[in-house]
Amino acid sequence: MATTRTAHTEWEGDLLSGSGDITLDSSGAAHFPVTWASRAEDPNGRTSPEELIAAAHSSCFSMALANGLAKAGTPPTSLTTKAMVTLQPGTGITGIHLTVEGRVPNVDEAVFKAAAEDAKSNCPVSKALSGTTITLTSVLT
Where are the chain's structural domains? Predict the structure, then answer.
């Protein structure tokens, strides 16, 4: 069964001096203030679309990797995933780098790296962002 999630942004003013508020409608979990400066300069307590993409990507990747490892009979004890989304103003998003550290009993580094590469290629967010270069560093701890 398909699911649809929604969010909306209320924006006031122009790009450079305006500001907005992002609301996660489906979950009601949060509101996030956003400005151009939070995208292109110092965040100052505000988010950006790129930070939200990083959050979506890191969580999707973690779920995909946990699922792949569990299906192989080696579920992880823990996974910590960081996604870094790079924005070049005037150009757009120029790359995403995922870093995952995992504790997985009875798995060697090669198996972990292969599972992580599979998750990078196949998580739904990676697929949605396939027009962007996505790189990965994986470390078994």
Answer: 7-40, 49-140
18 vs 7, 45, 94, CA distance in Å?
Answer: 19, 16, 25
Q: Tokens representing 50?
A: 């790129």
Residue with tokens 């307590």: 45
Amino acid in the structure at residue 131? G
pLDDT one-digit tens code per residue, 111-123: 999 999 999 999 9
Whether residue 133 contacts residue 107, with contact meaning beta carbons closer than 8 Å, is answered with no
Structure pTM? Answer: 0.94
Q: Are 98 and 57 in contact (CB under 8 A)?
A: yes
Is residue 46 within 8 Å of 32, Cβ to Cβ? yes
The pLDDT tens digits for 13-60 are 999 999 999 999 999 999 999 999 999 999 999 999 999 999 999 999
Return the SS3 of 125.
helix
Place of tokens 């103003």: 89
**Is CATH 3.40.50.720 the classification given to domain 49-140?**
no
Helix axes 49-71, 109-122, angle to 10 degrees: 130
